[in-house]
Amino acid sequence: MPGTRTASRYQHHYVDTGDVRLHLAEVPGDRPMLMLHGIGMDWRVWQAISRRLAPAFHLYLVDLRGHGESDKPASGYSVGHYAADVEELVVRLGLREAVLVGSSLGAVVAAATELPVDMVSHKILVDPPLTSGPVADPDTLRTILDLKHRPSDQLAAFLAQSNPGVGQFLAGMMAEMWRASADGVIEAALADLQGYFAIDSALEATEQPVLLLQADRDRGQSLSDGNAERALRLLPRGTLVHVPGSGHAIHATNPAEFARLITDFADTAKAV
Question: Pick from 63, 68, 64, 60: which is nearest to 27 by CA?
Fold first, then answer.
């Protein structure tokens, strides 16, 4: 694979999708699992949980376009653009019966991907903002867009305040990721406040079994009860699991339970 470098237990690659070059970190194992981070983050959000998933799963931890070490074009940051990148990435990696996991924006992207079940057998959506279109908290995005160009400690302080349970170290890491992301990532969402997350038709057309993981309402939940119920009505094969006491990044706040839930789901909910 072109553009390979190795550091620690991760094998780093750069894959040309034909439109952008995407960076991913790979952890060898058995069954393929592709993992997509949330808005403004990068592959490193999966580092801690990867120790619980490999070697049962062969992990591909992806930087979405505009994030991390992936290309940062001037435009092209709709959910559709991200999903098209992931579809092409799965093809170029030659994955079969992969488990597709996404957190927050990454979960919406995973839901929007259109891949057959022999390539992606299961989808796991971690506290996705399935709002049927609207961006729920544009003021937070506007604040981050401003603060990411100011001293990093200001953004870290804001992120610690707006993400209950996140310590100073993690808030500092999040600030670093946000500062490395392209402004267009936020600007695209702000330019389409009423329709950015409009993926209902994709949910209805999903062939794979889908696990919706819902965070705690008092700890930054993005998937509301109402939106979860609507998503279940749309999904042909949807399962909802609420994780009490978990923050929005369930894999970070409740890692043992997260690893158990997604492993059990991938093992037992067979696609048809």
Answer: 60
- Are the beta carbons of 83 and 113 closer than 8 angstroms? yes
Amino acid at 132: S
Q: What is the pLDDT of residue 119?
A: 97
Statement: the pTM of the whole predicted model exceeds 0.90: yes
Mean pLDDT of 104-119: 97
Across the range 184-199, mean pLDDT stands at 98
Looking at 20-72, which runs of residues are DSSP E strands? Answer: 21-27, 31-36, 57-62
Q: How many domains, in total, are found in the chain?
A: 1
CB 125 within 8 A of CB 102: yes
* CA 74 to chain CA centroid, nearest Å: 21
CA angle centred on 129, ends 52 and 271, rounded to 5°: 55
Tokens of 127: 């506290």
pLDDT computed for residue 219 by the predictor: 87
Whole-angstrom Cα distance, residue 156 to residue 36?
22
Q: What percent of the chain has pLDDT over 70?
A: 94
Domain hosting 102: range is 5-133+196-268
For residue 241, the domain's CATH number is: 3.40.50.1820
